């Protein structure tokens, strides 16, 4: 689901800041470390499928992908350079209380 339960038992749409916090948590648990603060990023959230795509290049052309099925992350590379990550079920696995 694309909604996060708040402290008042209401559902709210995730903000970009919240999605980045969720992504950072998931990526911290990954076998390939990714620094979301290292430079410019582009984000796209697919609410219908609860998928967050983070690109490290404006228009990447991945030549290969690696999947970490255990935590639901797909790493996309151009040659040896990581150009984007796709995080599956971004809000379902790591719900957080609203601040």
Structural summary, described in words:
The protein is built from 1 helix and 7 strands. The strands form 2 sheets. It has a 5-stranded antiparallel beta sheet with strand order 3-4-7-6-5, covered by helices on one side. A two-stranded antiparallel sheet has the order 1-2. It has one helix at residues 16-28; strands at residues 4-5, 11-12, 42-46, 51-55, 64-68, 73-78, 81-88. By secondary structure, the chain is mostly beta strands. 13% of the residues lie in helices and 33% in strands. The radius of gyration is 14 Å and the shape is globular.
The chain-level mean pLDDT equals 82
| Major pleated sheet | 5 strands, antiparallel
Structural class: mainly beta
The H-and-E topology, N to C, reads as EEHEEEEE
Spatially, the strands of the biggest sheet line up as 3-4-7-6-5
Cα end-to-end separation? 20 Å
Unreliable segments of 5+ consecutive residues:
93-99
Shape: globular
Count of helical segments?
A: 1
Taken as a percent bin, the fraction of beta residues is: 25-35%
Number of strands: 7
Helix content: 10-25%
Tally the structural domains: 1
Task: Output the radius of gyration.
Answer: 14 Å
Index terms:
99 residues; mainly beta; two-stranded antiparallel ribbon; 1 helix; disordered C terminus
């Amino acid at each position: 689901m694309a909604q996060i339960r708040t402290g008042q038992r209401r559902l709210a749409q995730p903000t970009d800041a919240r999605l980045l916090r969720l992504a950072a948590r998931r990526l911290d648990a990954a076998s390939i470390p990714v620094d979301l603060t290292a430079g410019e990023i582009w984000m796209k959230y697919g609410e219908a499928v609860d998928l967050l795509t983070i690109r490290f290049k404006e228009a990447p052309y991945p030549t290969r992908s690696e999947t970490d099925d255990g935590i639901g992350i797909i790493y996309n590379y151009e040659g040896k350079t990581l150009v984007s990550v796709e995080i599956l079920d971004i809000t379902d696995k790591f719900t957080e209380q609203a601040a």
